[in-house]
Write a structure and sequence with these properties.
The chain has five helices and seven strands. The chain is α/β, with parallel strands linked by helices. The radius of gyration is 19 Å and the shape is elongated. The two termini are 30 Å apart.
């Protein structure tokens, strides 16, 4: 389907369209991607090579403390992707901009900060007074740094 879409769209204004896909990090998708290939016009092509970027949703999986986006999940996804030999320059990791609490509806980061403005002055806090976990500035910087220190292409 994606290849047909890419072919049908061709180029517009001299530029090819950018095709992306999103997958849930714990869905078994990486294993499936690594095994899918086809032969358009007699050239074998891997499934992910159709897409310009493959976005791993590395959040919404709670750890033992209730956090919904952990460095371990990020690391596990990257390692699984690299082990299969899939192109590392096509992988991106998602980062949630919302907070979660067991048994509650997720709320946006802006709503969390609106209720508790002191969070802006403490970049290391990742939990609001009313129990919502979120990715704070320190966590976001750590995620970006972990990509660079692992010598991941595109860093």
């Amino acid at each position: 389907m994606a290849l047909m879409l890419r072919t049908a769209l061709g180029t517009r204004g001299g530029e090819a369209p950018v095709l992306t896909m999103t997958f849930h990090a714990h869905s078994g998708a990486i294993r499936s991607f690594s095994q899918l290939s086809f032969k358009p016009q007699e050239k074998e092509m891997r499934f992910v090579e159709i897409f310009d970027m493959c976005h791993a949703m590395t959040y919404t999986m709670m750890d033992a403390h209730g956090r919904h986006s952990s460095d371990k999940v990020d690391s596990d996804v990257v390692q699984a992707w690299l082990r299969t030999g899939l192109p590392p320059d096509r992988l991106t990791l998602g980062m949630p901009f919302f907070g979660v609490k067991n048994g509650a509806t997720p709320i946006s980061f802006s709503d969390i900060v609106y209720k508790e403005t002191a969070l802006l002055g403490d970049p290391a806090r990742d939990k609001s007074e009313d129990g919502f976990f979120f990715v704070n500035v320190a966590s976001a910087k750590k995620k970006l740094a972990s990509r660079r220190t692992r010598a991941w292409p595109g860093s």
